[in-house]
UniProtKB/TrEMBL annotation:
Pfam families on file: Ferritin_C144_05 (PF26021), SNF2-rel_dom (PF00176), zf-C3HC4_3 (PF13920)
UniProt keywords, alphabetically: ATP-binding, Hydrolase, Metal-binding, Nucleotide-binding, Zinc, Zinc-finger
Full protein name: Uncharacterized protein
Organism: Hypsizygus marmoreus
One term under GO cellular component: nucleus
């Protein structure tokens, strides 16, 4: 039990508002209730008098002794004044006298608030439950009456003070030493966040006695992870526990009256003190219960209170490591880990070398193996024997606490108490986190050899596994789980270093070669027995000698495994556990784990009915969870992450677990929870909330260190450099200057990023209240980083796509071409929009009645629109001509004259391909290039037509304006209308010709002319029934014969002939009443449709009456109605003949299928159902058309009703059946029926041929109809284009809005035109390969120059003129074309060799933009080496960076033959592009995900001397691989997460490396990549500064998680990869000057990259082109914020 004491000085003059500012209406004295104190003092003294009297009466005559003050007696008046206190101890004064005297003093009115308390709660608590005293604390409170504010003490307070002093004076006058008076038990209550001492003895007044002073020993709540500020006070924390029935509080109040000479009058001390003794006890068993769940809306604070109290009672002796810098991050994690301790004796060290291991372990590796053995519960004796170690206490957050006679266990992380120690089983395993390259794989193999499973561990041992929820069998095997790229490497390492170990590769549960479930095992045994029986029978049927020979031969030919599996004993068929127990090691991958997860889970338990029998269907489970592995080793454990892989890992039963990785935390410390979950150590943490407490608090840092020091081992190369010899590594930076195309794309992307995030180039917000979207900023920076490598990064699909598809890899020339085409399309769209805007403006001007000259103004605007439209048409026509000439050149047949029409896709959109025409080009040319050219041609033709429509619109409306100007302009009006009409006819020419041709076919087609109505009319009766009638007459029976039973044969012959006669008559009737009537109707409708479809498309000269267009539309509607009915009628005729309808006819007629009728009537009911009339979108459905459709349908349906579900073919089938039933071959009736059947078959065939002709004729009708529809559609489009303008606002507002839109569109069009000229300029230079002579002289000064600038409008200026122009007021536009200039996108170039001068500085509003002068000394690639690299010849153009890397690899190929290199990139697209570039240049390379002849890429790369480059993904494939055969690493971009970088570098900087290694990090100058490097250098994380560029990497100092575990503005989906955590870092990458120290932000000079070579060599950072070298511009002006 802990005892504590605190002294407090309180003034009783504190008003309520000083403590609770909002309680302005309260007037009580919160610090001390003077009236209540006096009352308790009176009660206490009266009790003393009674006790004294009782003692006196029991003395039996002895004289009662009394204290000296009791002998003095004050007067009655004085006694009244002091409130009736009995100061004469022992006097026989009645109690009633005291009462009267007390009533004589009138206390001032004062109302104390009511506080809730239970005066007996602590008594009941102590009596009803078991409590353990843990704390006694004494409050000593000295009170003063010093006012807090002068002259502001209420009068009532002064009266109380005087009365209290008078009472105390009486006591002081009779004492010489402090006197203590017990005031009784008190109860603590809470009021407005403070504790109040209340007394249950106060009967008549408020129970409020005093405000308890705070008792808060110094503590940093945030350091301990305590969120509640209330529990900082120990007493308040105890009170919270008491309210939760977890603690009990008991308090007693005493007053100490001081002699008058002991008070400090100068400090206004009152002559008394109060002593409050509090006793705190913990209540059992409720203190052991889990904490109740808390929410943000309802915080209870019980957990915080308990942790606060217990930490005060039992402080921890854990110390925070010195390396803790305020955050538990990855550097701190690495700093706390330690290497394995030294072994106690050389013999033990010698014993750590397994005899079966081929390599000899280094001393530090043997120490690590000893640590691994210790983590598996084994140790080595002094003589070197491996034995189980003595049980030792495992790491735990539980501390044993002795409190009196009670022992309990305190969890310092959770704050829980337990009466018994935790029963967690010891955790076997740990984290092998040695630095990459120190042989973790070899140490793991040594562990497997050193500590094999004992012989008695076999599948006969089973146990229930609660995680997997099944009985598992013990096996001796170790399971190794690794990334897919490392599986083959593990197999190779095991085969090379431990050949005695048997290894199995596990590829998933579906590929297991043995039975898994019991059912599968029984089926395999049954199959084996069946095979044995067959072999036995075969042998028994042969002779004994032959039998012997065949048996011998069979035994010799039998496979070894098959022989073992099909032994005579059926138990030789083994299950999975027995099978895998025969191996020492099983290797699988994380991918396999994810695929096995669903079958690894136990089947969900569902409720079942008791009275139902359920089949016990055995569900297959993953073989990985069916056995208990000896150990499970997770290689590169940081790859586990969460999700299915983590869940699957937790399900696998095992004895011990080891996590192996040089960087066990993927990107942040929080990732370590996945590792702990695999080790099953997470149980001691128990929840994510406690894990967060462990890694986010200073209190948790000490326990975090203790936890991982117990379970993890880490050896650094710097720790064992005396034992290790790894060749020197040097790291270089390679700066690449982007080419003009790449720089242009990058600048455009930067502008888009600034627009998206709402900042200008200086980082200044463009609007008030700006807030950046972190996810947008993060994705924008990622896009910029990708462009630095190649514009297509992030846009590619998988390789193997066809040429010209979106996923195909493009060269920079292709990218430039796409940019030109895309910008040209944008320019044409803007230009067309400008023309349309001008036309709209003219229409609005013409409707402005306030403008007297509105027609003239509108005409002027239309003339301008015509001029723009003509330029638009010329541009579109020129583009089409160039494309066709290019196509002709590519085909090799030279240019050919273009006509208005063409075949196939050459036809304009206004001239669609007819249905019966096919293009020879389309049939013969199916290559992707031809398809692409065809699509482009069609798009250009469509655009040309749109431009012509815009021109027609402007010209037509000019006629309207001339009309409005009066008769004087009639000639101009006629000319305008005539020109517009000519344009309209030209636009409609193609479709009009197609329609006329289709119409001519209807009138002059020879096939149609051969079709006549007579050919379809059938002569009836078609079938001759005279022979049948003669038979009927011959067999006609008499009445007697008819009545005879059974009927004679004659009667049966007559009836059979009668049935045949009925069928013949039915066929003749159908032909007469249905088919012939249908023929008449068909011919009538066909003639009418033809007449409708051959009418003129447009009226002739002098025939127009204004209604011709409406009549034409009506005719089209009538024609479509007739066409639909006509198609249905043809289907009806086929139905009448064949009893079937074509699918097309059924679809066109929209027949409804009725399924609730008999099959015999189904077809006829469907035909008779009302068909739905539907028109094409170009023909408006009119009511008269619906009426006409109903009438036509009624006509054809009336004919169908006559069929009654029958058809000619139905009758044919019935007649043929009747003939077949007659057995006699020469029977007369049979012969007649055969002839009739033959006639019907010939009839059906002839009618079928005629129907085919009608179907072909229908196609011609449809074609004519469609061509006419297309013609009228385009005519309608042209008509709509000249419709009246619509508006929703006033004419003035509409004019203003249109004018503003026009101005904005003009500016945009100027920009796109300028950019198009610039792109054309780039294309021209790239195609010609020479410098334009005009570029060697400035447009302004006409002087030659060496250094100049080119604008996006393709105008060239010298540097001096450009700088002078930009500083002028009018320098916002180009001096030549007045196109607005974007200073940030101006391209700088030099003529001839680049000069060794600094680039000009950026300007913003005429002033230099902030530029850092910080000098960072990087280790750059040697200038001479880089110059030689750039002189290497290479094929292709895949961007400056990739092409330079290709030349670098070519240079290595020639200067260091056979040397192998590794290339890392953070983007898969970069690797695909690089792979294409290397292939084009004859450098064999391999991606890690590629296999060759079943071997892994890593193994092929090591073994094949011709493969010189291995391509790896910087995130997914940067860990674990041992590629010491390579000596160079190339990083294609600067990285943000340096853990990725370290892992990548460690692939070659490791044990087994025999050559000095080099690392080259490529980056693009003047881009975010350079800013990323500078940011890392400022943070001390760069690997490429002069001081960090050589030798071993200090991983602990370089590893970082950006000092946080929380991603700023994270996405909903979990983010992975090389992305940036912090918002400040992202802004620092885009705007470096915003986060630079002010001392470096001076405008004197630019910051220059300090490299390992001299300044005059810095020009070699870009490619040498020989002529003009384009590069980024540093000259820019930004006029205001955007």
């Amino acid at each position: 039990m802990r005892h504590s004491f605190s002294h407090h000085v309180e003034t009783i003059q504190v008003p309520v508002t000083d403590i609770w500012p909002r309680r302005v209406q309260e007037n009580f004295r919160p610090i001390l209730n003077i009236q209540g104190l006096c009352e308790l003092l009176q009660i206490a003294t009266n009790d003393d008098d009674k006790a004294s009297s009782s003692e006196s009466s029991s003395a039996k005559g002895k004289k009662r002794s009394s204290s000296p003050p009791a002998r003095r007696h004050r007067s009655t008046k004085r006694a009244k004044t002091v409130g009736g206190f009995s100061v004469q101890r022992g006097e026989s004064e009645a109690a009633s006298t005291d009462s009267r005297e007390a009533e004589d003093f009138v206390w001032p009115g004062m109302t104390f608030p009511n506080v809730e308390y239970n005066p007996l709660s602590f008594i009941e608590l102590f009596e009803s439950t078991e409590v353990v005293p843990v704390l006694q604390h004494i409050f000593e409170i000295q009170y003063t009456n010093k006012p807090t504010i002068e002259d502001d003490i209420p009068a009532s307070w002064k009266i109380e003070d005087e009365h209290l002093l008078e009472i105390l004076a009486e006591f002081q006058s009779r004492i010489t030493e402090p006197r203590t008076i017990d005031l009784g038990d008190v109860v603590l209550a809470r009021y407005c966040g403070r504790l109040v001492v209340t007394s249950p003895s106060l009967k008549t007044r408020s129970s409020w006695m005093l405000l308890l002073p705070s008792f808060a020993p110094p503590i940093d709540l945030a350091w301990h992870g305590i969120s509640s500020q209330v529990v900082e006070d120990i007493m308040m924390a105890c009170f919270v526990l008491e309210t939760a029935d977890r603690a009990a509080m008991q308090a007693r109040l005493e007053i100490v009256i001081l002699p008058s000479n002991t008070c400090d009058v100068g400090q206004n001390e009152l002559p008394f003190r109060l002593q409050l003794t509090t006793n705190i006890s913990l209540r059992t068993p409720s203190i052991y219960e889990p904490f109740p769940r808390e929410t943000k809306k309802k915080p209870l604070g019980i957990e915080d209170a308990q942790r606060r109290v217990l930490e005060f009672l039992y402080p921890s002796d854990a110390t925070t490591p010195e390396s803790y810098g305020g955050a538990t991050n990855i550097p701190f994690f690495y700093s706390i880990l330690r290497p394995a301790p030294y072994l106690p004796s050389p013999s033990i060290e010698e014993a750590m070398q397994p005899s079966e291991l081929c390599p000899t372990l280094l001393p530090f590796q043997r120490r690590s193996v000893a640590w691994l053995l210790d983590r598996e519960g084994k140790t080595a004796t002094p003589n070197g024997n491996i034995v189980p170690k003595a049980p030792a206490a495992e790491f735990s957050f539980w501390d044993k606490i002795e409190e009196g006679n009670t022992t309990w266990y305190f969890n310092r992380l959770s704050g829980m108490l337990s009466p018994s120690p935790p029963e967690d089983a010891p955790v076997l395993g740990g984290i092998l986190a040695e630095e990459p390259g120190l042989g973790k794989t070899l140490e793991t193999i040594a562990l497997i050899l050193m500590n094999p499973a004992p012989p008695e561990r076999n599948p006969s041992l089973t146990r229930w596994d609660p995680e997997a929820r099944l009985y598992v069998k013990a096996i001796k095997t170790s399971l190794i789980v690794t990334p897919p790229a490392l599986a083959s490497q593990w197999a190779d390492e095991l085969a090379a270093h431990a050949p005695s170990l048997k290894v199995l590769i596990y590829d998933g549960w579906s590929k297991v070669p043995v039975p898994i479930t019991r059912t599968q095992l029984e089926e395999a045994r049954s199959k084996m027995l069946t095979q044995k029986d067959k072999k036995s029978k075969k042998k028994n049927s042969s002779e004994s000698k032959v039998k012997s020979k065949s048996k011998k031969k069979s035994d010799e030919d039998m496979d070894v495994d098959e022989d073992r599996a099909t032994n005579a004993d059926e138990t030789e068929v083994i299950d999975w556990c027995t099978y895998v127990n025969g191996f020492d090691v099983v290797i699988t991958t994380y991918t396999v784990l994810r695929s096995d997860f669903n079958v690894a889970l136990a089947a969900p338990e569902r409720p079942r009915r008791e009275d139902v029998y359920y089949a016990n269907v055995e569900r297959p489970r993953s073989p990985l969870v069916m056995c208990e592995w000896n150990r499970v080793i997770m290689d590169e454990v940081q790859m586990v992450g969460g999700g299915k892989t983590e869940d699957m890992v937790s399900l696998i039963p095992r004895l011990s677990s080891f996590a192996v990785s040089g960087t066990p935390a993927r990107t942040q410390v929080a990732d370590l929870i996945h590792v702990l979950k695999f080790l099953r150590v997470d149980r001691i943490i128990s929840s994510t909330r406690l894990w967060n407490r462990l890694i986010t608090t200073g209190f948790g840092a000490a326990h975090f260190a203790a936890l991982f020091q117990n379970y993890a081992l880490r050896t650094l190369k710097s720790n064992v450099k005396e034992e290790l010899t790894i060749p020197q590594q040097t790291r270089y930076l390679v700066g690449i200057s982007l080419g003009p195309v790449e720089k242009h794309i990058y600048d455009q992307a930067v502008e888009a990023v600034l627009l998206d995030i709402g900042l200008d180039a200086r980082g200044v917000a463009g609007s008030e209240g700006w807030q950046v979207d972190g996810s947008v900023l993060r994705s924008s920076i990622r896009r910029l980083r990708g462009i630095c490598t190649h514009p297509q990064v992030g846009q590619l699909q998988r390789p193997g796509d066809r040429l010209y598809k979106p996923g195909a890899v493009k060269t920079i020339e292709d990218v430039l071409q796409n940019m030109r085409e895309s910008n040209w399309r944008t320019m044409m769209d803007d230009h067309k929009a400008k023309v349309q805007g001008l036309v709209r403006l003219a229409q609005l001007q013409n409707r402005d009645e306030q403008d007297e000259n509105r027609s003239q103004h509108a005409l002027n605007t239309l003339l301008l629109a015509e001029k723009e439209a003509m330029a638009l048409v010329e541009e579109a026509q020129s583009a089409l001509d160039k494309h066709m000439a290019k196509v002709s050149t590519n085909r090799g047949d030279g240019p050919r004259e273009l006509s208005d029409r063409g075949k196939g896709k050459e036809r304009q959109l206004s001239e669609p391909l007819s249905e019966d025409e096919t293009s020879e080009d389309e049939e013969s040319s199916t290559s992707p290039a031809t398809e692409e050219h065809g699509k482009k041609r069609g798009a250009l033709q469509n655009r040309l037509r749109e431009c012509r429509i815009a021109l027609h619109r402007a010209k037509f409306l000019q006629g309207d304006m001339h009309h409005g100007l009066g008769p004087a302009h009639s000639a101009d009006e006629d000319a305008a209308y005539a020109a517009a009409d000519a344009m309209r006819r030209d636009l409609l020419k193609g479709t009009e010709e197609d329609a006329m041709r289709a119409m001519d076919l209807l009138e002059h087609d020879a096939t149609r002319k051969k079709l006549t109505q007579d050919a379809f009319m059938i002569e009836v009766p078609f079938l001759d029934d005279s022979g049948i009638r003669a038979l009927m007459k011959k067999y006609h029976p008499t009445k007697a014969e008819r009545d005879e039973r059974p009927q004679p044969h004659k009667v049966r012959l007559h009836d059979r002939a009668a049935r045949s006669q009925e069928l013949i008559e039915e066929a003749n009737e159908i032909m007469d009443t249905v088919l012939n009537d249908q023929s008449v109707l068909i011919w009538e409708w066909r003639a009418h449709i033809t007449s409708l479809l051959t009418q003129k498309l447009s009226p002739g000269e002098g025939e127009a009456d204004g209604e011709e267009y409406q009549r034409t539309l009506d005719n089209q509607g009538e024609a479509e109605t007739y066409l639909q009915s006509y198609a249905a009628l043809l289907a009806d005729r086929r139905q009448a003949i064949l009893n079937e309808r074509t699918l097309l006819a059924a679809h066109d007629a929209r027949e409804q299928k009725l399924r609730n009728t008999k099959a015999a009537m189904n077809a006829i009911q469907a035909i008779l159902a009302d068909a739905v009339l539907t028109f094409s979108e170009d023909v408006e459905l009119q009511p008269e058309h619906e009426v006409l459709h109903t009438q036509l349908s009624a006509k054809r349906k009336s004919l169908l009703e006559r069929l009654n579900g029958r058809a000619i073919k139905s009758i044919l089938i019935d007649l043929n059946a009747s003939a077949t039933q007659i057995k006699q071959t020469q029977d007369a009736e049979k012969l007649i029926l055969k002839d009739i059947v033959t006639d019907l078959r010939q009839f059906i065939a002839e009618q079928g041929a005629l129907m085919d002709k009608l179907d072909a004729d229908l196609t011609l009708l449809r074609k004519a109809f469609n061509q006419r529809i297309l013609y009228f559609r385009q005519l309608q489009e042209i008509s709509d284009s000249v419709a009246e303008v619509t508006r929703e606002t006033t004419i003035v507002d509409a004019l203003l809005e249109t004018s503003l839109d026009k101005d904005e569109l003009d500016a945009k069009l100027n920009r796109t035109k300028a950019r198009q000229r610039y792109l054309e300029h780039l294309t021209k230079n790239k195609d010609d390969g020479i410098q334009d002579e005009d570029e060697e002289s400035c447009i302004l000064c006409r002087c030659e120059f060496a250094r100049g600038f080119i604008t996006h409008c393709a105008h060239v200026f010298c540097e001096g003129c450009m700088k002078a122009w930009l500083l002028r007021k009018e320098g916002k536009t180009c001096p030549v074309c007045r196109v607005p200039i974007d200073p940030y996108s101006i391209e700088r170039f030099t003529v001839g060799q680049p000069e060794q001068e600094k680039p000009p500085q950026r300007l913003v509003n005429g002033e230099p933009a902030p530029k850092s002068r910080r000098q960072i000394s990087y280790n750059m690639i040697d200038a001479n080496l880089f110059s030689e690299v750039n002189l290497m010849e290479s094929f292709g153009d895949f961007g400056s960076k990739i092409q330079t890397l290709v030349r670098h690899l070519i240079y290595i190929k020639f200067t260091d033959p056979g040397a192998k290199s590794i290339v890392f990139s953070a983007w898969a697209d970069s690797l695909h592009i690089l792979q294409r570039a290397l292939k084009d240049n004859g450098i064999r390379c391999l991606r890690i995900d590629q296999k060759s002849k079943g071997e892994s890429a890593a193994k092929v790369f090591k073994s094949d001397p011709d493969i010189l480059v291995l391509l790896l993904h910087g995130e997914r494939e940067n860990a674990g691989l041992n590629v010491t055969c390579a000596s160079r690493v190339f990083l294609l971009e600067s990285v943000v997460h340096h853990g990725f970088e370290i892992q990548a570098i460690a692939r070659i900087d490791r044990m087994g490396q025999t050559r000095p290694t080099e690392v080259y990090c490529y980056y693009a100058e003047d881009t975010v990549e350079r800013n990323i490097l500078d940011l890392a250098a400022r943070q001390g994380l760069s690997l490429y500064t002069i001081e960090n560029s050589a030798g071993t990497i200090n991983v602990s100092s370089l590893a970082t998680d950006v000092e946080t575990k929380v991603v700023d503005s994270p996405r909903k989906k979990a983010q992975k990869g090389d992305f940036i955590f912090k918002m400040d870092d992202m802004l620092a990458i885009l705007f470096p000057h915003m986060f630079e120290d002010i001392e470096y932000l001076l405008p004197a000079e630019d910051s220059v990259m300090q490299s390992a070579y001299t300044e005059d060599q810095s020009s070699f950072s870009g490619r040498d082109t020989g002529n003009a070298v384009a590069g980024p511009s540093r000259l820019s002006i930004r006029h205001g914020t955007q």
